[in-house]
Amino acid sequence: MSSNPEITLHHLNASRSERIFWILEELSLPYNVQVHLRTPSRSAPPSLLKISPTGKAPALILDGKVITESAYIIYKLLSLPSVQSNKTELDIQVEQTDDDIFWSHYAEGSMMNLFQASAIVQATSAAYVNGMVVGQLEEGDKEAVKGYSGFVASKYLGPQVQGTIDFAEAAINKTQHGWFSGTDKPGSGDFMMFFAINSLLAGTRAGAFNVGEGLKGWYKRVLDRPAAQRALQKIKEEEEKAKSKM
Ligand SMILES: N[C@@H](CCC(=O)N[C@@H](CS)C(=O)NCC(=O)O)C(=O)O
């Protein structure tokens, strides 16, 4: 019987680390959590850069070694000897399918890429208009910044973001079991898609885009799982604990 590794998850609030909470709970692996709270500009605080070479979340310390990139973290967790030797007992897709690999790439390379660009345009233009970048602006300059960022958000990035959601919606509707893994259990593709869909239905992007019944059904299937419920509860408790210490 292989023993469990020593795990610490470095989590940034409202971040991709949500994916890692979910998989850790599905795997029933014991883990410690270290929360890093976003600065007022929504960036990661310097404490995260001390841990992660990229300064981004999630970062996982696995038996003393720091690993980053959520898809890689998920792959390393699924490859653990204690997980591999127990794979028939687990209610998740441990061996990655072709679909898992596709959706893992899609989640970061297509969806989050555009989601993030959109969030950056909104946050930076608001900061610019509010005088936080080059000081107070003339009314005409404010209108020009708002006009340009509004154009980028609504005519350029917005439709592309919606396109990525519609593509995922069509794909999930074609699956036999309603999981991105293509099997009857959620796999790495599902863990990776969780952050984007959670943000669209319950997070910072709620109500901003059209999400169809297929993705809503997938989200409900995720939330019906005790492991996902434990993950969301743990995120809440850990973030509250960290905020109370500030
Ligand atoms: N491709 C990376 C992306 C990591 C990433 O961009 N994380 C964001 C949170 S969702 C972050 O740490 N942002 C804080 C910052 O850039 O200051 C992954 O999947 O882990």
Automatic annotation (TrEMBL):
PROSITE patterns: GST_NTER. InterPro entries: Glutathione-S-Trfase_C_sf (IPR036282), Glutathione_S-Trfase_N (IPR004045), Thioredoxin-like_sf (IPR036249). CDD domains: GST_N_GTT1_like. Residues 4-85 form the GST N-terminal domain. Belongs to the GST superfamily. PANTHER family: GLUTATHIONE S-TRANSFERASE 1, GLUTATHIONE S-TRANSFERASE-RELATED. This is GST N-terminal domain-containing protein. It comes from Kwoniella bestiolae CBS 10118.
